[in-house]
Specification:
single chain; mainly alpha; membrane; MetI-like_sf; ABC transporter permease; transmembrane
């Protein structure tokens, strides 16, 4: 109990640093997730239309996903320097696989009978995609995006090591100064941010599904 009180007191005493790091972390995570969403969903849709590309695209994103996050950040430094650019690029590459794969799997697993019925009623490919396949695949796509968001918020802590800021600054300073309370404070904030984002997306998912089913 005494340790937890020391952590809370530390958060209050260093509130300016905490708020700045929290803002930076939210900004980095938001921009990275936005870029992943803008690229990942269209790419997942594209490979459902060109199935021969699917295995290659999923293999490449899978290989990128297996690279350790710290190493990926390190690879970006010689190419893009330090700071926000290499951080966003590394997070973008790292987050592509879950969203591309879930979008692809969600669409190709739509009941073939429903697809054939829609085609039989004269639906064009665009109508089939936007009125049938995407609404039915939405739970898969949202699940993939929620995975991306939680993962991105967690991995963004490494951004502090290449000068991009964020809550990783608290953890990094705690490690270098052997200040356990600071490490725990940073970790708690990252976990709380991940849970809050996942809960918000879960709420939006339910509202969206309810609206589609009406």
């Amino acid at each position: 109990m005494g340790f937890l009180l020391r952590v809370l007191l530390l958060l209050f005493e260093r509130r300016e640093l905490v708020l700045q790091s929290l803002f930076e972390h939210v900004y980095i995570s938001f921009v990275a997730c936005l870029l992943i969403g803008l690229a990942g969903i269209p790419l997942g849709i594209l490979i459902t239309r060109f199935r021969s590309w699917a295995s290659g695209v999923l293999a490449v994103t899978g290989v990128l996903y297996t690279i350790p996050a710290l190493a990926l950040f390190g690879f970006m430094i010689p190419l893009l320097g330090i700071g926000l650019k290499p951080t966003l690029f590394a997070l973008f590459i790292y987050g592509l696989l879950p969203l591309v794969r879930n979008t692809y799997v969600g669409i190709v697993n739509v009941d073939p009978g429903i697809v054939e019925a829609a085609r039989g009623m004269g639906s064009t490919d665009w109508q089939l995609l936007f009125r049938v396949q995407l609404p039915l695949a939405l739970p898969f796509i949202v699940a993939g995006f929620r995975t991306v968001v939680v993962m991105t918020i967690s991995v963004s802590t490494i951004a502090a090591f290449i000068g991009a800021g964020g809550l990783g600054v608290l953890i990094f300073r705690g490690i270098t100064s052997y200040y356990t309370e600071l490490i725990v404070a940073g970790s708690i904030l990252v976990a709380a941010l991940s849970l809050a984002a996942d809960t918000l997306l879960g709420f939006l998912e339910k509202r969206l599904l309810r609206r589609i089913q009406m």
